[in-house]
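Q: How would the structure tokens look for this protein?
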Amino acid sequence: MARDEPVIAEELDEITPRIAALDAARVDARARQTSRESAEADDKRRTAEVLDAIGAKRKVVERAASEAEASRDQALFDLADRLSVDRPAHLAAQLAPIDQIDLELGEADRRAMELKEIVSSVDRMKLARGAAWIALALAVVGGITGWLLYLLA
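A: Here is the predicted structure in token form.
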């Protein structure tokens, strides 16, 4: 063992600088890894902030679009009211189909009201009693016809 000690010490002396270099490289690699992990965490945080900002902006844009649509619809409704009431002479030809449709709708509404009035004026008890008498009369006629056929056969 004493004679192997100088050889082992010499090999250890040769290996020690390489071990130290590897340790330094490992420490450097860990430092770079830590730096990259912190940079990645910062990137994730910034990405989340950007996505939140984009989401907020989208909500603002959607709200503005819906308000613009409501404003447009209200303006069109007001314009339709004005055109319906004022009836400008230079638009008479373009408004003629609308007048025809309004006339047809009015006639259909009047007809529907008349039919509802007629239906509501029907006495359901009298109608049922009449239907029962008709059924009874048909049954009697059928019975007589059957009896006559039986006698003739």
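The chain has three domains: 1-86, 89-121, 124-153.

The chain has three helices and no strands.

Upvote if useful.
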